[in-house]
């Protein structure tokens, strides 16, 4: 009988003396049961062990070549080695290095489905972007449930909480801790490092994280994982009963204090340790009074050092120099530090050695290293990786889905897959992954409460419109950008290189990650609308250029027409040019003469006059005061309203009826449409988008749009009663 | 002393009785040598074995849950088990399954840097696309040098050889074998499977592959790897001395012969084996006379079966039924078969079990399976993965770089990184990854030798121009498309959905994968030009629409102006509209009247008159016969020339001087520019591309362009002597 059979027909549990159980079963095809004695099982174990032995010997012979090539891990400095714990467990550290070398991973050291905790300090827009790449690299390799603990400022909290909520990765929990509340613990420490006060925040983790959390992996945001994080987590089991902090030695000479004349670093054991990757045994640290201990160390050293240079790392190292027994040194491939002139190359000889890459130079990807192309490729892999693909289920580890994901599942199950409009209905309930405030954003609210945000949405093929819009509108802008992960990076490079965009801080860029086959236009509008931070919004499209001065004119009109206390929707009349090169009219007079010359037209004059006919362009030509117009079927003007206006109906995706339905709902809620006599906007020509040409020709698309319209009407009647019947009648009369 | 130390300071070799060697060394930091007796070593081994034991028990306890959940691998059919080799090695197969289960991979079973051989039969455009995704999934996980052996038709050979040559992945060799030459070995077998004759080609591998190749992994093109292929390669070592073919059992019931009434499959052991993944021990097969053996089996079965239904798989199974000892059954996760209604779910309980996914249903990604979303995500990961990122070096396994890659390295080293125009110069020598004939292509050469190909290049933002161009030009087209891997998939979906494009087979689509920061316009033009399969080419840009009938008019003009025997460049006069919606002129007369009305202009009339001034539009208005014009500085007409015309100068990237330099070279080679009196083309308006707006504003860009121009002039003088001085003078006079 063969031991491998255990896994074939499990039917019996055999309990060993040590309390472990072994599942055994017969391999015979006749399925006859076979009772095993404990002795039998032991014999089987011996057989198995011998097989292991055989493999082991093979590994040994193979490792000769590798071992001969590099003295693996041999640059650990003698000074530290001398002061480290010389106890019996010390050997395990090197045994583990051996295990890594021979590629039989620590994985078995982690329980199946064991929850792994990761903590990260993250503040501001840039770190919030960086941390996503770290998270992707962890998720890509992981096979265990994860719990991320983020210490965040308000900005990172908003960004990451909405990101994870919309990401809905199975078996991933996320908790946030307010850095503001923790600041007082470290604010007293003068720090010269570019990370500022957040660089010191890791010192507070024993206090910040829940008191029942016993251990955690702490990571900087500029880390990339090249392996399953469970392998790192497994190292906690190698800690001796005195060790509490797992760290990798620094790969630069900073703490040796010989970099330049008068270079006086904080005290450290030899090269010191890098705090980009830390295994923190929280329960032990709490027990020994870590909080008081590091504080005393810091206070004493600051008397001569005056401030920290490398933030938390200085304090960790000074602390460790005094308490070396607390440290468990990790093999250096757990934190390959890619600054210029580091010894990082000595951490790995083969691709398979690489575990964690740390971009800890301010130069980041432009750092010099023999294998930097390799590292860059790994980094770019995750930077541009479609995060939606990481939503894959950890089957084998059942998990409680989030409320959102349950709602989505239920909604999906209610859909009929054979429905001709299934794709449309599915789109309506889709939850797109969301990265709010992708770039730096700073908006100081206007004092007079008249401020208005331009609200629009776009995909990458309209990006070149942004600079032009910025030149025409100096006020705040809220944009939803529909992009893939790779496109978001393209956008980032574009915005950082643009003279117009890079200094402009009052634009909120909200990335909605692509998913499904339709452009979810109304979802995008709602996201941009929700993120507007002013009392009023100008609901427009990205292929329009507002007249110069529209921003200030709107603010004046908002006061004049008392938008605060009325239900007015201010209509900005829309025009269009079919010419690519347009000299933009400087005034209403100039616009009117261009209209007369045929250089400009009223918007969609040629193809869809109804959309803007109620604006009454004839009246507008001579109007000097605002005038009210009546709603008519298919009216879809661009309007300025209070931010608390109804949202867009997300059932309309792709093209058709997306604005019409919104204007209809404004009318149902008894908004008045008031045309502004001195405002205008002009539609700029562009090639038809991919999507529009794809669907314009499709009869099933038109059929579904009709179905959706009917359902919208029904919903409207339900919501607004008999009054809403007028929309159905108006529609039928057309 | 800890056994793990062996790997830290290797210095001694210890030889065991069985001839194996063990490398031992002291762990002591004092580096004192320590001589070990064989007995010591055995004791160490015992310690090590005990440590292994400890881990093993942990694994065992962990696997209980999994084992209880699913009868892992338990559907192996009794019939086969009974007839399989019952020898002592048989146990290893299941032991290996156990090893896989517990995640301690077979990797140590493969020598460090051992070369792994993979064979694939690949024919036609679609399979050539599919196989790239397979190759990417292998490259992504691999840590060993690879040698791919492709049995190809002419189409796949052209596509894959240029792809791999331009891909330049370190430590990857590629060989091609002509399927045409092998056809006679299998052409006599009637086959009903959709794969046609190529489906049978795997039977010929012992003959097709080099006689010194001893073993190979054979894969279908619809396979995705989720793990390092070395793990699969390692299983060769588990073969008994009788086994020669490693296979996974079928996960469908096809061979059970009970799918429908009168369903009579070929003979097989139980469910039979799937041939999507095969380990072929070539040397053994050759020795036992495999070629004659399968042939005899096939001949005998065909007498009653008449034809194969599942191609090679039927013959493999009939053969195996007669020779079961030759088979080594692989654990079924090495070929998880995703057809509808398969038992594939029984092959894995956890994500980590998944090794190889086989999309062996004609439905491909639309197949039904509980975890299909997971599988799809994995597939999409590689489908859209940036193949350039796989160029990463296998450091640790030194390899001989290809000639191209050496040339590139040398060229790169010659560049000065501090040169202000470094990026430009780098771009010039860049070798972009290339996928020729990305879609179905079939061109039947015209008999009269007057045929002309429209040659152009584009990026994804100009894709919507393609349909319009197709409507204006019925002749052959050669297009270079500059795209990322993900964009190429977007393009594929677009083309497959387009009524205009999907039936059009005379367009060669050549994907040039994105790399670097400039649009390599002249490289793209050269690639499209080289792939033109007609004696003449019309060198144009994708934002122009040719007049209706231009194709036949050009063919007539080619004869009339004797392009075959003269050095003429026929100029097609270019016009432009600034209006997005244009009613395209049906004739020269209509065009002239639109010119007079101001609806059309001569091309770049407003911004760059010089580019086309020498065309002499005034003369053209009334011309009825072709007329010769003289070259002038900055002339950049669109021309028809023989295909053997000079190539474009690839130093010009991005925007500026890319056509000018080409026309200059035509003039230097004494081409005559002859304007066609009844041809015209019209530039359609579009928003400026991303790149152009990025660079138009850059002064360093303009500076570098000037530098490149000067260098081009110098090269021209070198090449064409004093005569070329006129270009420099002309340039200066402007």
UniProtKB/TrEMBL annotation, chains A, B:
The lineage of its organism: Eukaryota, Metazoa, Chordata, Craniata, Vertebrata. PANTHER family: GLYCOSYLTRANSFERASE-RELATED (PTHR12270), XYLOSYL- AND GLUCURONYLTRANSFERASE LARGE2 (PTHR12270:SF23). It comes from the Eukaryota. This is LARGE xylosyl- and glucuronyltransferase 2. It catalyses: 3-O-[beta-D-GlcA-(1->3)-beta-D-Xyl-(1->4)-Rib-ol-P-Rib-ol-P-3-beta-D-GalNAc-(1->3)-beta-D-GlcNAc-(1->4)-(O-6-P-alpha-D-Man)]-Thr-[protein] + UDP-alpha-D-xylose = 3-O-[alpha-D-Xyl-(1->3)-beta-D-GlcA-(1->4)-beta-D-Xyl-(1->4)-Rib-ol-P-Rib-ol-P-3-beta-D-GalNAc-(1->3)-beta-D-GlcNAc-(1->4)-(O-6-P-alpha-D-Man)]-Thr-[protein] + UDP + H(+); 3-O-{(1->[3)-alpha-D-Xyl-(1->3)-beta-D-GlcA-(1->](n)-4)-beta-D-Xyl-(1->4)-Rib-ol-P-Rib-ol-P-3-beta-D-GalNAc-(1->3)-beta-D-GlcNAc-(1->4)-O-6-P-alpha-D-Man}-L-Thr-[protein] + UDP-alpha-D-glucuronate = 3-O-{beta-D-GlcA-(1->[3)-alpha-D-Xyl-(1->3)-beta-D-GlcA-(1->](n)-4)-beta-D-Xyl-(1->4)-Rib-ol-P-Rib-ol-P-3-beta-D-GalNAc-(1->3)-beta-D-GlcNAc-(1->4)-O-6-P-alpha-D-Man}-L-Thr-[protein] + UDP + H(+); 3-O-{beta-D-GlcA-(1->[3)-alpha-D-Xyl-(1->3)-beta-D-GlcA-(1->](n)-4)-beta-D-Xyl-(1->4)-Rib-ol-P-Rib-ol-P-3-beta-D-GalNAc-(1->3)-beta-D-GlcNAc-(1->4)-O-6-P-alpha-D-Man}-L-Thr-[protein] + UDP-alpha-D-xylose = 3-O-{(1->[3)-alpha-D-Xyl-(1->3)-beta-D-GlcA-(1->](n+1)-4)-beta-D-Xyl-(1->4)-Rib-ol-P-Rib-ol-P-3-beta-D-GalNAc-(1->3)-beta-D-GlcNAc-(1->4)-O-6-P-alpha-D-Man}-L-Thr-[protein] + UDP + H(+). Its cofactor is Mn(2+). It is a single-pass type II membrane protein. Bifunctional glycosyltransferase with both alpha-1,3-xylosyltransferase and beta-1,3-glucuronyltransferase activities involved in the maturation of alpha-dystroglycan (DAG1) by glycosylation leading to DAG1 binding to laminin G-like domain-containing extracellular proteins with high affinity and in a phosphorylated-O-mannosyl trisaccharide dependent manner. Elongates the glucuronyl-beta-1,4-xylose-beta disaccharide primer structure by adding repeating units [-3-Xylose-alpha-1,3-GlcA-beta-1-] to produce a heteropolysaccharide. Supports the maturation of DAG1 more effectively than LARGE1. In the C-terminal section; belongs to the glycosyltransferase 49 family. Residues 1-19 form the signal peptide. It comes from Scleropages formosus. InterPro entries: Glyco_trans_8, Nucleotide-diphossugar_trans, Xyl/GlcA_transferase. Keywords: Coiled coil, Glycoprotein, Glycosyltransferase, Golgi apparatus, Manganese, Membrane, Metal-binding, Multifunctional enzyme, Signal, Signal-anchor, Transferase, Transmembrane, Transmembrane helix.
């Amino acid at each position: 009988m063969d031991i491998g059979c255990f896994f074939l027909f499990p039917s019996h549990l055999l309990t060993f003396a040590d309390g472990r159980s072994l599942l055994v079963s017969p391999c015979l095809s006749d399925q006859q049961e076979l009772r095993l004695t404990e002795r039998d099982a032991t014999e089987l174990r011996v057989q198995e062990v011998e097989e292991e032995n055989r493999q082991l010997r093979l590994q040994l012979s193979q490792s000769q070549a590798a071992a001969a090539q590099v003295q693996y891990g041999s640059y650990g400095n003698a000074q530290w080695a001398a002061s480290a714990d010389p106890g019996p467990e010390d050997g395990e550290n090197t045994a583990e290095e051996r295990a890594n070398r021979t590629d039989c991973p620590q994985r078995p050291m982690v329980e199946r489905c064991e929850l792994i905790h990761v903590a990260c300090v993250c503040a501001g827009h840039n770190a919030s972007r960086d941390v996503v790449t770290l998270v992707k690299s962890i998720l890509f390799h992981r096979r265990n449930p994860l719990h991320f603990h983020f210490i965040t400022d308000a900005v990172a909290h908003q960004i990451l909480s909405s990101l994870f909520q919309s990401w809905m990765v199975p078996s991933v929990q996320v908790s946030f801790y307010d850095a503001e509340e923790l600041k007082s613990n470290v604010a007293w420490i003068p720090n010269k490092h570019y990370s500022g006060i957040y660089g010191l925040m890791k010192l507070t983790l024993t206090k910040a994280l829940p008191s029942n959390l016993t251990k955690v992996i702490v990571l900087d945001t500029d880390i990339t994982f090249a392996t399953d994080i469970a392998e790192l987590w497994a190292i906690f089991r190698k800690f001796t009963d005195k060790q509490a902090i797992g760290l990798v030695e620094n790969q630069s000479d900073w703490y040796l204090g010989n970099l330049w004349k008068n270079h006086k670093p904080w005290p450290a054991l030899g090269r010191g340790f890098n705090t980009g990757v830390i295994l923190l045994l929280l329960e032990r640290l709490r027990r020994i009074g870590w909080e008081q201990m590091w504080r005393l160390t810091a206070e004493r050293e600051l008397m001569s050092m005056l401030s920290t240079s490398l933030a938390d790392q200085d304090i960790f190292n000074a602390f460790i120099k005094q308490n070396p027994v607390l440290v468990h040194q990790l093999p250096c491939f757990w934190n390959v530090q890619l600054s210029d002139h580091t010894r990082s190359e000595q951490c790995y000889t083969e691709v398979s050695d690489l575990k964690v890459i740390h971009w800890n130079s301010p130069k980041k990807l432009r750092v010099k290293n023999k294998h930097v192309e390799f590292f860059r490729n790994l980094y770019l892999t995750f930077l541009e990786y479609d995060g939606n693909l990481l939503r894959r289920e950890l089957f084998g580890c059942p998990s409680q889905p989030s409320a959102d994901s349950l709602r989505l599942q239920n909604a999906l199950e209610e859909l009929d897959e054979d429905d001709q409009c299934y794709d449309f209905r599915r789109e309506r309930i889709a939850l797109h992954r969301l990265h709010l405030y992708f770039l730096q954003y700073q908006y100081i609210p206007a004092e007079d409460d008249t401020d208005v945000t331009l609200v629009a949405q776009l995909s990458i093929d309209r990006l070149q419109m942004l600079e032009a819009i910025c030149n025409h509108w100096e006020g705040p802008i809220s944009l939803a950008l529909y992009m893939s992960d790779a496109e978001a990076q393209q956008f980032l490079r574009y915005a950082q290189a643009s003279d117009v965009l890079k200094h402009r801080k009052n634009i909120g860029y909200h990335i909605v990650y692509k998913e499904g086959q339709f452009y979810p236009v109304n979802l995008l509008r709602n996201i941009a609308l929700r993120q507007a931070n002013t009392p009023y919004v100008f609901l427009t499209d990205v292929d329009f250029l507002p007249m110069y001065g529209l921003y200030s004119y709107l603010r004046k009109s908002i006061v004049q027409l008392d938008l605060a206390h009325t239900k007015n929707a201010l209509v900005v009349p829309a025009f269009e040019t079919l010419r690519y090169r347009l000299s933009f009219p400087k005034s209403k007079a100039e616009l009117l003469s261009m209209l007369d010359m045929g250089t400009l037209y009223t918007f969609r004059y040629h193809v869809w006059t109804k959309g803007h006919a109620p604006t009454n362009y004839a009246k507008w030509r001579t109007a000097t005061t605002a005038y009210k117009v009546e709603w008519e079927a298919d009216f879809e003007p661009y309007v300025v309203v209070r931010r608390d206006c109804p949202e867009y109906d997300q059932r309309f995706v792709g093209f058709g009826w997306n604005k019409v339905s919104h204007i209809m709902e404004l009318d149902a809620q008894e908004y008045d449409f008031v045309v502004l006599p001195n405002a205008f906007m002009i539609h700029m020509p562009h090639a038809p988008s991919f999507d529009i040409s794809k669907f314009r020709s499709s009869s099933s698309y038109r059929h579904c749009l009709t179905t959706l319209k009917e359902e919208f009407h029904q919903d409207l009647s339900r919501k607004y009663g008999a009054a809403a019947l007028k929309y159905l009648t108006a529609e039928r009369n057309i």
